[in-house]
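User: Some background: our group keeps a shared notebook of sequences we're curious about, and every so often someone picks one and asks for a predicted structure to add to the entry. Today it's my turn. The entry only has the sequence so far, pasted here. Could you supply the structure so I can complete it?
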Amino acid sequence: MKTLFYSFRIVAAIAIGLLLFTCACEKGNDDDNNNNSGEMWNPEWLIGTWEGTTPSTVTPFENTKIRIVIESYNLETHDTLPGGSYRKTYAYSGIFTWDVDDDGVWSMQFNHANYPLPDWNVIIWDCISYTQAGQTMNNVSIRINDTTQTDPLHSFPLDWGPIYDNTGNPPTYLDLYGDAEITTNGIFEEAVYPPDEGSMIRLTKK
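Assistant: Of course. Here's the predicted structure to add to the notebook entry:
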């Protein structure tokens, strides 16, 4: 299921990206601190506390509260693309908490230093700025897993995007798709959150 979601995101991103590249012919402003129309968001937009609850319609783990506290970030890549567009990738550090305020509460630190290891306790924001089109394409990848090999064993591969923006204003909520996987006493359970309205996990910035 993870492969299906990942492929869906990549195919959509490539198709629309190629379309936008055809009209990009000048290099734009590459200043992270600008928040003007159509420009890349300040990377601090993810810093802070994000909270939400898994949908009641998806089992197991329905109505489970999630909290992500993002504390810092690091610029990992900065690439110039054809037509004067550019791409940046940021990795973030903080704490992910599952089942907040309940008996099954579980927390794990994630760290930007884990980039570019795949699926290994890091949150990544990837952004392409299509200069002439005045638009950005944004993806957030959340990869949290249990590094201590405890029982229960947790894994949360979640994604957001691709999201296209021409306002320069970052969102205050994230609709995440992917899955939650927990293995208890050798019994594997998985809740799947497809990229459909009502089936995703909405996290709101507090």
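Suggested note for the entry: The longest helix spans residues 2-21. The longest strand covers residues 65-80.
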